[in-house]
Amino acid sequence: MPASRVRVLVPGRINQRVVDRLAGQFEIVRIESADPALLTPELRDVKAIAVAGRVPAALMDALPELEIIANFGVGYDGVDVAHAVARGITVSNTPDVLTEEVADTAIGLLLNTLRQLPQAEQWLRQGRWSREGAFPLSPLSLRGRSVGLYGLGRIGLAIARRLEAFGVSIAYHTRSPREGLSYAYHPTLVGMAGVVDTLVVIVPGTEATKRTINAEVLSALGSNGVLINVGRGSTVDEQALIAALQAGVIAGAGLDVFENEPQVPEALMALPNVSLLPHVASASVVTRNAMADLVAGNIEAWFETGRALTPVPETPFTRRAV
Questions:
Q1: Is 279 tagged catalytic?
Q2: Which residue from 121, 198, 207, 291 has the highest number of Cβ atoms inside 10 Å of its Cβ?
Q3: Catalytic residue among 30, 87, 154, 279
Q4: Is 261 annotated in the active site?
């Protein structure tokens, strides 16, 4: 079948650049969400999905000819990968192209949280500097801090490289130690939290990481502790975090991700010792364009060469001859 007749399904919203790039080579079909009930019988021949969100097993099963799911983002927890493996469907993501942007954002969020820079800007904008005098001294600083990284993949390493320039001590927790690194390795998350005062979370949202930042970890982090999360909201027990912030169990938090996006608990927004961002770690035009190009490139490569450019580790498949 020539590529011009291959149908690509786009469930829900995705960067328009993906659609524009693929439209010249493929037939693009759009539905409002990843609901198989929205599929008509003639769409059963869809061979590819381009998605920035969920792809449940039921949608895959409604598409018997589906070969590849190209995910917009590094994290692909919205895709039922286990089912894709069982079906022999390739799943791709967009690593590397957003690594530096997310790492930059993590450092910015850390500085905002420690030095209260957004609050200081509002102080100026509201005219309080001229009326009331200087903005109060920030109670926290990056000086002399010890940072623990929960996760040390591409983005975690990029964050660590940036932190080195600030002269802070760096430790990390992953399932197993990484070779060739000078950072202190901790085999348990709570153990690392007990010896650092800043915890940066950059792990994927999986069942293994779900709510692993819990009351025990926050208590171990301590009253001078700061939590930064640029990974997935599911990693943090939000109610435990709110309680810890309210009671002074930890000193502050900077969050770019939340459990139930875009809903953010009112109790969290009411706290003065947090810095909150609306999941914007990779949200620059430059980076999102690169992500869109890689989504499209994965689909193009699959049908041109039989291999995706960046398949996830669980699906290192090649295309069967047609």
A1: yes
A2: 198
A3: 279
A4: yes
How far is residue 12 CA from its own chain's centroid?
19
Of 173, 232, 259, 288, which residue is the catalytic one?
232
Closest of 41, 40, 98 to residue 71, by C-alpha: 98
Range of the domain at 80: 3-95+285-305
Q: Which of 164, 261, 304, 314 is catalytic?
A: 261
- Verify whether residue 83 is a known catalytic residue: no
Spatial CA neighbour of 223 closest among 259, 241, 250? 250
What CATH number should be reported for the domain holding residue 62?
3.40.50.720
Residue 260 DSSP class:
B
In a domain, 317, yes or no: no
Residue 322 located in a structural domain: no
pTM of the model: 0.93
Helices (H) and strands (E) in the chain, counts: 12, 12
Q: What is the pLDDT of residues 235-288, one digit of tens each?
A: 999 999 999 999 999 999 999 999 999 999 999 999 999 999 999 999 999 999
Task: Give the count of domains, the chain.
Answer: 2
Contacts of 38 (CB under 8 A, 6+ apart): 11, 31, 32
> Do 137 and 87 belong together in one domain?
no
* 108 plus 34 within the same structural domain: no
In this structure, which amino acid lies at residue 58? A
